[in-house]
């Protein structure tokens, strides 16, 4: 082999060796992840700006021989749906989301003014499950429960099913714990599923920002600690500390005045009332 060919081979080897680390870095970039599992998305609940129509509802179901108003139905069970007004048409093949008022979100007030803050956003609903109509009779429609977040009960409201796409996010480096505000849109966490006062990664929360504020699914918000004015020994008030960023959430779904978020990163417990800021 000539000296020229040997020299060319050496140059190509150097170029390849130089390019390899960059390619490895590109390959190491984290792939986007779903912000929630299908079950978490289907069972995340929501806050409607105005109460939903309760015209369509589950009034009973198969295997409830004693007509028990507290009877519970699960996935695979058959439930009966009817219109209170008689004006809503139900057809075979129709799919419905089954929901009920999320009264547990108002059962315990963890923060001063929490009840008023929740009411200002609308009416909270929990997702119960999903059902598909298999027959229509003069006495009501027969629907099979195809998915359940918990138990389906008589009285649950049926609304037309609308799929909820699951947003994706790319994992990032750990938070800058003491980074100052970026001046972007900010709000607060007003409640969490199951009325939890503290949450961490994998928990669903409700934020007091919605469509009217420009929020959309997939947006990421950093969570920062909100300190309350605490008086010690009845006379000493401590100065306000530096801002502390303690987590991150991804918006799953959005309503007019509120949105549902999933906590995807936290360095310590997140409390109701903590602030959120668009990244």
What distance separates the N and C termini?
58 Å
Structural class: mainly beta
Number of helices: 3
User: Radius of gyration from the CA trace?
Assistant: 26 Å
Short summary:
With 279 residues, the protein is mainly beta.
What structural keywords apply?
elongated, 2 domains, 279 residues, seven-stranded antiparallel sheet, mainly beta, 19 strands
Report on the structure:
The structure is a single chain. The protein starts with a helix and ends with a strand. With 279 residues, the chain is mostly beta strands. It has helices spanning 3-27, 38-42, 114-121, and strands at residues 33-34, 46-48, 56-61, 78-83, 95-101, 123-137, 140-148, 157-160, 168-169, 186-192, 198-199, 204-207, 220-224, 231-232, 236-237, 245-254, 259-266, 270-271, 275-278. The protein is built from three helices and 19 strands. It folds into two domains: 42-160, no CATH class; 166-278, no CATH class. Helices cover 14% and strands 36% of the residues. The strands form five sheets. Strands 2, 3, 4, 5, 6, 7 and 8 form a seven-stranded antiparallel beta sheet that branches. Strands 10-12-17-16-13-19 form a six-stranded antiparallel beta barrel. Strands 1-9 form a two-stranded antiparallel sheet. β14 (231-232) and β15 (236-237) form a beta hairpin.
Write the layout of secondary structure elements.
Blueprint: H1 3-27, E1 33-34, H2 38-42, E2 46-48, E3 56-61, E4 78-83, E5 95-101, H3 114-121, E6 123-137, E7 140-148, E8 157-160, E9 168-169, E10 186-192, E11 198-199, E12 204-207, E13 220-224, E14 231-232, E15 236-237, E16 245-254, E17 259-266, E18 270-271, E19 275-278
